[in-house]
Amino acid sequence: MAYICIRSMELSPNELEKAALAVLRVVPRLAVDHGKTQIWADGKSLELQDICDKITTVLSHIRINKATLGISAIPITAEIAARTGNEASPVLVPAGGERGFFAPLPIDLLDPSPPLTNLFDGVGIETCGDLAVLAQESVEVRFGAEGVHLWRLARADDNRLIFAAMPRTLPQASMDWVDYTLRNPERLVFVINGLVDSVSASLESQGLCAREMTLVFSLANRTTYDHRVRPSRSTSSRKAWMRLIRTHLDRIELADGVTGIELRVEAVTGEVERQGDIFDRGFATARATEETVAQLLDDQGAVIVVPSNSRHPLVERRTSWQVQEPAHAARAHMVRESRADPQLTLQLFAEPRRIAVKTVKRRDHHLPVRYREGDAWIQVEAAAGPDRVSGGQWEKPFAREYFRCVTGDGTLVWIYREAKSGDWFLQGWWD
Amino acid sequence: MSASPALPDLRSLLEQRFPDATPVTHRTAEPVATGIRELDGILPNGGLPRGRLSVWMPGGGATAILRAACHTVASGGERAAWIDGLGTIAGEFWEEGPILVRPANRRNSLRAAEELLRCGGFSMIVLTGSEPAGTEMVRLSRAAREGGAAFVALTSHTSMASVRMISRIMPHSYVWRRTPFGDPAEACSASIKVRAQSLGWNKSAELRVPFVEHDVRSALEPGLPDRRGMKKLRA
After folding, report:
1. B222: which residues sit within 8 A by CB, 6+ positions away?
2. Nearest Cβ partner of A431 from B63, B101, B216?
């Protein structure tokens, strides 16, 4: 990085703008500092002497002849060089020589505030070199924050961001047509297929994976319709993107015929390859599994899940299902301990099924002896319960009596009586 | 009367040309051990056949046994998947190991099964709650052969199946913890009778399986601790 500072005290704001436009013809980017009446030009990767000659020439064309140029890898050095230089030739401060350049210059060039100037006078600091040789702690104690700032500048330590970071150009492709409008989805898919092909090739050549893309439809009514597409994991695969876009196209309704389509990548990630594990027997197929899982998530939504359980009294409200990332799902097989012994666990119906129940009285409760699900009466061989659960006073009150009943075919079912209504429900079974 | 010498040659030729037509009892498919000694003992070759379709009649402890088998596969460093077609798995009793797929409907369940089977990354895939039939069975068994996974479908349709399994919980084998009145309070365990059938194969075994009790809570609100049964602190 080389900063070129172009300075002229005689320029009005309009002339400064004019000068900036002229300089922009010969440098890739610049920044205008109206306060100090100076222009910053980016001399990165350019032949500096040549570019300085060109700047002087273009400025002379617009009759600006009294500009001074300072060139350095550090902004403050370039700025001071421009201030101390003359119109005859630009001042180039070589890399590594910035502190030496500063040392003999008067401290006033760093524009200290009047109180600080007095303090500097009091301790005999006259040049930048006098300040630069001091220790930071001493400067901080005696001259405060401003003193430390000037001390840094005097040591040619300037971390100002003169030019904003260059935005990265992400792949994009577009196609327009003017003689006709497209309304047929299959034709649109044909066009999009070509665009995706181009974008995917561009991504692959850069070693990138797209995280998000936007489809922009230009419509015949002179409006545009933007639609964002985001897969479950970043990929550069043309096949994966086309499948996802096809799914999205099914849901899009456009107000008019299409006269152009643009596909642009909005966010990218690097292509990450998982490191191998010699104990992972499934490593060879990890990528294929991850792709399949991602495809499933793209096609069907959040279907690969893990439970997140609370301690709610009602079992149907205890679990919320969290979607698993494809990479995690492909790794999820690595469990430390095996539970090879089978255990009969509770299975739940999506919704409790209403049933008719015959009961007999046993002490303070009624015990189910048979129940009817559909057309058939099912005999209860043994029953345990009731387990009484109640709560929800501040939301939706509930009070239930649960029974575990063994049916004639040996299944242990879980039924309950809603105390409020007296209705019976079959909620699940052990399997 | 001795068999013709051409018969073994014919048999090997058939095994080469039509591997799916060969019974699993001829050791044409690698087994996936379930880790349950009694079950592996009755399965042809000591496990569920890879690349083949096995069907298990729903209920009768099938879920418990197959989940244990999935955990065995996962603990061996391979992948297993459980496709819960009806969403009957209670989250409280699900343990890390196999990946759990909960599709929205039957069609999606079958699609998920086919995609996972084809990808070749899974050693065992269990499909529950969505009973495939007819051509669906054909497609799924082909996908299983391509991916090499041991595919178990909980269904009553047995066509295309290499191994047919039936299990039943014996109603009178329940062991109960009793109340002070002698009534059943909590089911502790029960016996499951499992039968494995294949071409020229019919074996059964009985295994004792414990119940995992559901934690019934009576706290008024979910955030409050349930202190039933705790000893009172004395001042």
Report:
1. A310, A311, A312, A313, A317, A391
2. B63
Residue B75 dihedral angles phi and psi, to the nearest 5°: -70, -20
pLDDT digits (tens, 9 = 90+) for A96-113: 888 888 889 999 888 899
B228/A21: higher pLDDT: A21
Contact A341, B37 (CB under 8 A): no
| Category of B127 on φ-ψ map: left (φ > 0), alpha (ψ -120 to 50) or beta | beta
Nearest-CA residue of chain A relative to B224? A311
ipTM field: 0.85
Closest CA to A298 of A343, A362, A245, A360: A245
- What pLDDT score was predicted for residue B235? 46
End-to-end CA distance of chain A: 70
Residues of A in contact with B173 (CB under 8 A): 410
> What tokens were used for A364?
């303070």
Q: Cβ–Cβ of B89/A347 closer than 8 Å?
A: yes
At B92 the pLDDT is 87
- Cβ-based contacts under 8 A for chains A and B: 247
Q: Is A305 on the interface with B (CB under 8 A)?
A: yes
Is pLDDT above 80 for A360? yes
Interface of A with B in 267-296 (CB under 8 A): 279-282, 285-286, 288-289, 291-293, 295-296
